[in-house]
Amino acid sequence: MNEIKKNTVLSGVQPSGNLHIGNYLGAIKNFVSMQSDYNCFFCIVDLHAITVKQDPKILKRNTLEVAASYIASGIDPKKSVVFNQSSVSAHSELAWIFNCVTRMGWLNRMTQFKDKAGKDKENASSGLFIYPNLMAADILVYKATHVPVGNDQKQHLELTRDIAQKFNRDFNCENFFPIPEPIIDKDISRIMSLKDGGQKMSKSDLSEYSRISLLDESDEIIKKIKKAKTADTVMPEKIEQILKLSEVNNLLNIYAGFSGIEKEKLIAQYKGQNFSNFKSDLSDILVEQMKPITAEIKKLMQDKGYLIEILLEGQNKANEVAQKTINDVYDIVGFLRNET
Ligand code: TYM
């Protein structure tokens, strides 16, 4: 039976190694839950990854590892299109058009560029600066209506909406590009470092103890949760008090995200206690949920041929849709096509 799904989802993850539970809770878990109701495209954004230096061999391996993580987490390549970004050239082609639509002032406001370029802006790649235009192209080349992401991508999504609107207006083609909606969960869209509740959990943090990787074995998870920072108090009973203890709040968000138990219920369960029971129960939940995923990623990484097959199939399906958009865009902007 061929059901008709009206809305389209696109999202992506960079193959920059060290995928962690922040990526899982903030993004991938949502991908999995959306695939029955939407036309889904999930890409591995290798073009984005090279905006900072990459080792080519490791980049190839990390690309397969994201594919394995998608599938191990529950993305079904029969339902969703899974592919790597560079294999569909329409992404780069549309990104160039958007380079000519986006205003410098818009890009100058992007906080992620400021964070990633740091103090040495002069030495950052120009790709890092125009990174959000490529992201807009990823989304709009499939005319995606919904984009599940973590909170750190919110500003890029707002820019994508501005680009879509400006393109439609500049070229007098109302509704050509949809205005995509970000799908961002309240509590789990910004999982913080286990060592510092003021810092986002990140692939690039030098400390392994700041994050739980999707490849961590159970004993590593237990060790990291044991070492995770909490507070010199007992578990408070009011949410307002908890919000002031960012590390405790973060662990509660992780607990709620993995267990599906509401945060308020968890607070009621652990209030007035020191954090040892809480941490031990949190480890149990994490181990129970992560163990099968970690094992499956490792198993899939032993069968690279299978992963490459999935990416190839995804590339073909993605190309079909993306090529149609790029043909229309070229016509709209006035490029002469040498068609017979
Ligand atoms: P990336 O690879 O940094 O992260 C992948 C996804 O994980 C989310 N995320 C988090 N969520 C919660 N807590 C965290 N600590 C955390 N860290 C990361 C990110 O928000 C993201 O959803 N630019 C994007 C990739 C991209 C993309 C796209 C996304 C390229 N094109 C088009 C959506 C649509 C990025 O660098 O994600």
Strand content: 5-15%
- How many β-strands, per DSSP? 5
Shape: globular
Percent range of helical residues: 40-55%
Report strand order across the widest sheet: 1-2-3
Radius of gyration: 21 Å
Q: What is the helix/strand order?
A: EHEHHEHHHHEHEHHHHHH
Output the CATH homologous superfamily of the largest domain: HUPs
Mean pLDDT: 96
Biggest sheet, in brief? 3 strands, parallel
Under CATH, the topology of the largest domain is which?
Rossmann fold
What is the C-level CATH assignment of the largest domain?
Alpha Beta
Domains counted in the coordinates: how many? 2
The small-molecule ligands in this entry are:
tryptophanyl-5'AMP
Give the number of helices. 14
* CATH architecture call of the largest domain: 3-Layer(aba) Sandwich
Helix vs. strand class: mainly alpha
Distance between the termini: 38 Å
Poorly predicted regions are none
